[in-house]
């Protein structure tokens, strides 16, 4: 027969094991909740501990300051001010000369996780700085690389550019595949079928599109140059959304390795890392897009776009507004501001007209 003291010992052990399991369970719950609530800070900490060195080393391969320009210093502050960047999507196939099929003036406001993308259609007719001639704006890159492209866009928009980033579309194809695809709003099959164009079909309503399909999406041009420019904005937004997912953070070094020589920028690696962590800790970026429209014309048998001057002036005003660190978030000029102002004016006119009509009727009746 078991002694009373032995029973007490066994009961204590059983309670002890139960308490340990309860403590372990509590720890798991607390850690799990903490990981969820502080998942962004934890991701940044993990990035600093395990990935930061690899990323900076790989970014060194892409660091390419422009000739004659002094690299901008990295100022580590609590508050990061707005900055501008020229995004160049370069399409080079085989031994063909490189062309900047995408030219986007971007304004980034890191503190508010806001980005403004102003797209310039590649056939826009303007002065090419350094060539003393007018031509398609995308020819600036073919003539003088990123330096001439930057100078030309600065002159065209009347606003300075802090940095440039040139990305070869071939590199993006590999990145999309590494990310497992991207979401694209394709509601109708896209078919490239003209006899002098590369033949392809992109099926509609797929949950994810692979690298080749995404590349075809940005290359498709059988509707219009302006629609193609909008697709480039959509694609950049899709890439940003995919990369911003927390489970993609560990892939950053591999993604940069895939980009290799397909990515060049004059933004210092340490600045890119600081900016990336700032964005990761903030809200999901709010990306606003605007395209400077134009009207097609031919000169000596070559097709160009004559810029819409009203669009150009509005783009300049938006860029200045977004670049100004003193502009409060609620004072930012949005791309749809003109349409909203026109609608408000139309509503005001209708209301005013109705009142005048009533007033006139009263006078007539009297």
TrEMBL record:
Domain of life: Bacteria
Keyword Transferase: no
Transmembrane segments: 21-38
Segments for region (Disordered): 324-366
InterPro entries: LytR/CpsA/Psr_CW_biosynth (IPR050922), LytR_CpsA_psr (IPR004474)
Keyword Hydrolase in record: no
The entry's keywords: Membrane, Transmembrane, Transmembrane helix
Domain Cell envelope-related transcriptional attenuator: 99-243
Basic and acidic residues bias locations: 336-345
Record-stated family: Belongs to the LytR/CpsA/Psr (LCP) family.
PANTHER family: POLYISOPRENYL-TEICHOIC ACID--PEPTIDOGLYCAN TEICHOIC ACID TRANSFERASE TAGU
Official protein name in the record: LytR family transcriptional regulator
């Amino acid at each position: 027969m078991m002694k009373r003291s032995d029973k007490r010992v066994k009961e204590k052990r059983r309670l002890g094991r139960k308490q340990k399991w309860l403590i372990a369970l509590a720890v798991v719950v607390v850690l799990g909740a903490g990981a969820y609530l502080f998942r962004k800070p934890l991701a940044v900490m993990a990035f600093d501990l395990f990935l930061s060195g690899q990323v900076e080393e790989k970014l060194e391969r892409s660091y390419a300051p422009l000739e004659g320009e002094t690299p901008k210093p990295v100022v580590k502050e609590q508050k990061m001010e707005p900055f501008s960047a020229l995004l160049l999507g370069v399409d080079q196939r085989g031994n063909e000369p490189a062309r900047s099929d995408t030219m986007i003036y971007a304004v980034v406001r890191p503190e508010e996780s806001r980005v403004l993308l102003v797209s310039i259609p590649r056939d826009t007719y303007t002065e090419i700085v350094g060539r003393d001639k007018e031509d398609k704006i995308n020819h600036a890159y073919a003539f003088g690389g990123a330096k001439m492209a930057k100078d030309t866009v600065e002159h065209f928009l009347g606003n300075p550019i802090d940095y440039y980033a040139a990305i070869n579309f071939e590199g993006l194809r590999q990145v999309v595949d590494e990310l497992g695809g991207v979401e694209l709003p394709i509601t109708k099959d896209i078919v490239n079928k003209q006899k002098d164009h590369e033949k392809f079909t992109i099926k509609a309503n797929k949950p994810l599109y692979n690298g080749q399909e995404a590349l075809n999406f940005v290359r498709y041009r059988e509707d219009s140059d302006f629609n193609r420019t909008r697709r480039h904005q959509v694609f950049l937004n899709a890439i940003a959304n995919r990369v911003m997912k927390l489970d993609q953070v560990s892939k950053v070094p591999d993604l940069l390795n895939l980009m290799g020589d397909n990515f060049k920028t004059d933004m210092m690696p340490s600045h890119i890392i600081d900016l990336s962590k700032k964005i990761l800790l903030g809200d999901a970026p709010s990306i606003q897009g605007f395209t400077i429209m134009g009207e097609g014309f031919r000169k000596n048998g070559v097709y160009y776009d004559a810029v819409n001057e009203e669009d150009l002036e509005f783009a300049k005003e938006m860029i200045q507004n977004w670049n100004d660190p003193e502009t409060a978030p609620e004072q930012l000029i949005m791309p749809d501001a003109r349409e909203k102002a026109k609608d408000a004016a139309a509503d005001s006119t209708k209301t005013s007209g109705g009142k005048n009509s009533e007033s006139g009727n009263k006078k007539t009746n009297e």
